[in-house]
Amino acid sequence: MTTLICGSLAFDNIMVFPDRFKNHILPEQIHILNVAFLVPEMRREYGGCAGNIAYNLMLLGGEPLIMATVGDDAAAYLERLDKLGLRRTHVRHVHGTFTAQAFITTDLDDNQITAFHPGAMSFSHLNKVAHAKTARLGIVAPDGREGMMQHARDLAASGVPFIFDPGQGLPMFSGDELLDFMHLANYACFNDYEAKLLSDRTGRSLEHLAAKVDALIVTRGGEGSEIHANGQRYEIPCVEADDVVDPTGCGDAYRAGLLYGIANGLDWLTTGRLAAVMGAIKIAHRGGQSHQTSREEIGARYRRAFGSLPW
C-alpha cells in the first residue's frame, strides 16, 4: 500500500561547543547580547519529518511516497533518496530557496541554541495531493502552515485516511484550526506536551478529542505511549534500547511503525508495540536516518520484547 508522507525534508547542522553557555553569557548584559561560540566539531545530518518517516517505513518494507519541497542546495539529499530507492516524484524543487535546515549548537550541559530556517518548506502548498494518485494512506507531518492545512483537506476530500501529526508545528494553529484537523483526520499523534497544548488550545479534553478520530496516540518518551481507540486505552511500554545516543527522529521512527501497522491491518496493540520497537532502534544511533537494519532484524527485535509478530 502506497503511503503518502507529507512533510519536510531538511538538513540538521549540529555543532558542539566544548564549554558551557553560562560561562560566556552575562545575565546582567542580556539586553545587549552579542556572543560567538567556537564549535570545532560539526556534522550535517539528513532529516526532516518526511525524510525520517519515509526512511523508517522503507526499513519496515512499506511503500513510502514523499511529498515535500527542497531548495537549490538539495542535490546531496536527492541523490541519497535515489540511492535508497525512495521515490521523489512529488519532491518539488523551489528555485531561489534553501532546503529547510536547523542549526543546533549544544554545550557540555546538553543545553541547546537552535535556529531554524524553513526555506522551501514555506512553499509546501504548491504540492497537490491529487497528483499522488496511488496513495491509499497518508500522514500530514510538520511542514509549511498553508501546506499542512491544504494537504489535510485534500486527503480527506479524496477519501485517503491519514494521520494528523503536527509535531513542533502545532503552535502555528489556533484552537479552531486544530479542531478542523481533528475533524478531517482519521488518526492523530502527539507527544505528551503537544497533547496538553492541543487540549489547552481547543478547550477540549483528550478523551473528547480521541472520540473524533479512529485512534489518538500520545507518546511519552521513556515512559512509553498510549493509544486511544475503540473506546479503549492501550498502554504501550517503552522498548529497552541497546544504547541511548540521540533522540532526534525517534518520534518519526515511531510514526513509521504506526503507518506500517495501519497499512497492514495490524491490531492497535501490535501496531503500538512495533512503533515502540522502531523508536528503540533509532535512539541508539546519531541522526534521524543513520540506523541500518533489516525487516527480519526488526521482527526479531519485536519478538524479543513482546513475543510473536504476525509477518
Description:
The chain is of the alpha/beta class and 311 residues long. Helix content is 33%, strand content 23%. It has 9 helices and 13 strands. The protein has helices spanning 49-59, 75-84, 145-158, 175-184, 192-202, 206-210, 250-263, 268-283, 295-306; strands at residues 2-6, 10-16, 41-47, 63-70, 90-93, 100-106, 112-117, 135-140, 162-164, 187-191, 215-219, 225-229, 232-236. A 9-stranded mixed sheet has the order 5-4-1-8-9-10-11-12-13, sandwiched between helices. Strands 3-2-6-7 form a 4-stranded mixed sheet. Helix 4 crosses helix 5 (192-202) and helix 7 runs antiparallel to helix 8. InterPro entries: Carboh/pur_kinase_PfkB_CS (IPR002173), PfkB_dom (IPR011611), Ribokinase-like (IPR029056). This is Carbohydrate kinase family protein. Residues 35-290 form the Carbohydrate kinase PfkB domain. It holds the Pfam family PfkB. GO terms for molecular function: kinase activity.
Short description:
By secondary structure, the protein is of the alpha/beta class.
Give the topology, please.
Blueprint: E1 2-6, E2 10-16, E3 41-47, H1 49-59, E4 63-70, H2 75-84, E5 90-93, E6 100-106, E7 112-117, E8 135-140, H3 145-158, E9 162-164, H4 175-184, E10 187-191, H5 192-202, H6 206-210, E11 215-219, E12 225-229, E13 232-236, H7 250-263, H8 268-283, H9 295-306
Parallel strand pairs: 1-4, 1-8, 2-6, 4-5, 8-9, 9-10, 10-11
Antiparallel strand pairs: 2-3, 6-7, 11-12, 12-13
Helix pairs in contact: 1-7, 4-5, 7-8, 8-9
